[in-house]
TrEMBL record:
<keyword id="KW-0804">Transcription</keyword>
<comment type="similarity">
    <text>Belongs to the LysR transcriptional regulatory family.</text>
</comment>
<dbReference type="InterPro" id="IPR000847">
    <property type="entry name" value="LysR_HTH_N"/>
</dbReference>
<dbReference type="InterPro" id="IPR058163">
    <property type="entry name" value="LysR-type_TF_proteobact-type"/>
</dbReference>
<dbReference type="InterPro" id="IPR005119">
    <property type="entry name" value="LysR_subst-bd"/>
</dbReference>
<dbReference type="InterPro" id="IPR036388">
    <property type="entry name" value="WH-like_DNA-bd_sf"/>
</dbReference>
<dbReference type="GO" id="GO:0006351">
    <property type="term" value="P:DNA-templated transcription"/>
</dbReference>
<keyword id="KW-0805">Transcription regulation</keyword>
<dbReference type="GO" id="GO:0003700">
    <property type="term" value="F:DNA-binding transcription factor activity"/>
</dbReference>
<feature type="domain" description="HTH lysR-type">
    <location>
        <begin position="1"/>
        <end position="58"/>
    </location>
</feature>
<dbReference type="Pfam" id="PF00126">
    <property type="entry name" value="HTH_1"/>
</dbReference>
<keyword id="KW-0238">DNA-binding</keyword>
<protein>
    <submittedName>
        <fullName>LysR family transcriptional regulator</fullName>
    </submittedName>
</protein>
<dbReference type="InterPro" id="IPR036390">
    <property type="entry name" value="WH_DNA-bd_sf"/>
</dbReference>
<dbReference type="GO" id="GO:0043565">
    <property type="term" value="F:sequence-specific DNA binding"/>
</dbReference>
<dbReference type="Pfam" id="PF03466">
    <property type="entry name" value="LysR_substrate"/>
</dbReference>
Length: 298
């Protein structure tokens, strides 16, 4: 019985799909199906019930999954130790990011410089994908968490500024207080969790309901709309600051450094998280703790 085939079985079980598992593992679907069938013949019982529409793990398959999960982790840790790999992490980290997450790349590159045997598989999506089903090790989430089964570590704060272009303000006037924002055209952002961000927490006292004629899920589109004078935007501070300094945008109100929405690093709550995932999580959390600019990285 090959360890790689057991690992492939776990991937198929997590994805509940031969096709999805094949895409993640970069293997032909026929190869995945054949290896699972050979594994079933070797152990003497079915791991999955197959129909034309559905793949469902059997009771025996679920028991096999539960008993082998911790064993696989322990085996990998032991092999790394015996091979003298305690000081050198190797492997691939598959991470789901939200759109326009380029600001995380320097931190990832620093980690990779320390651990050249590590590769990253980064997937950007405007919605929260199921981490287990899609084969992710980690994901980044903004705001209120919907899935309580995930392990969540608070990574930072999404701190934003209300901004507009000089041309917009010249045409439509400058809102004197946050409570005047409902009288203006505001560019709305659809969060990765699917919610529309139409209640702007401008400061501790002001949470204002706004509206506008554009709802977008890409930061680059908000940039283009606000710079063209189309409306007022609630921009990540680290992106807005250079444009404010250059005079292309105007900050409308003062903001508290601690005002914002939480950013979470989440990962599946499995028994026996790999040493690579554990080390990377510790590294990112330390980066956030030591560097205030990173903590408010958006």
């Amino acid at each position: 019985m090959k360890t790689q085939d057991i690992e492939l079985f776990h991937l198929v079980a997590d994805c509940q799909s031969f096709t999805q598992a094949a895409n993640i593992s970069d293997l032909p679907v026929a190869n995945v199906s054949r290896r699972i069938k050979l594994l079933e013949e070797e152990i003497g019982f079915l791991l999955f019930q197959r129909t034309t529409r559905q793949l469902r793990i059997t009771d025996s398959g679920q028991l096999f999954y539960n008993r082998t999960r911790a064993l696989l982790v322990q085996l990998n840790e032991t092999m790394q130790h015996l091979q003298g790999a305690q000081s050198e992490l190797r492997g691939r980290l598959r991470i789901q990011l939200f759109p326009d997450s380029n600001l995380l790349l320097p931190a990832l590159q620093r980690y990779q410089k320390r651990n050249p045997g590590v590769t990253f598989d980064l997937v950007s999506s405007d919605r929260e994908l199921d981490l287990v089903e899609n084969g992710f090790d980690l994901g980044v989430r903004i705001g209120e968490l919907k899935d309580s089964s995930m392990v969540a570590r608070r990574l930072g704060i999404l701190r934003r500024l209300v901004v507009a272009s000089p041309s917009y303000l010249e045409t439509h006037g400058h809102p004197e207080t946050p409570w005047h924002l409902p009288n203006h055209n505001c560019i709305l952002f659809r969060m990765p969790n699917g919610l529309i961000d139409d209640h702007w927490q401008v400061d501790k006292e002001s949470r204002v309901k706004v509206s506008g004629d554009y709802i977008v899920n890409q930061q680059s589109m908000i940039d283009e709309l606000v710079l063209s004078g189309h409306g007022i935007a609630f921009q990540p501070s680290i992106l807005a600051a250079p444009l404010i300094q250059s005079g292309e945008l105007v900050q409308l109100f003062e903001h508290s450094d601690e005002q914002g929405e939480p950013i979470w690093l989440v990962y599946p709550n499995r028994q026996g998280v790999s040493r690579l995932v554990s080390d990377f999580v510790d590294y990112i959390m330390e980066e956030a703790r030591l560097d205030p600019a990173f903590y408010h990285f958006l």
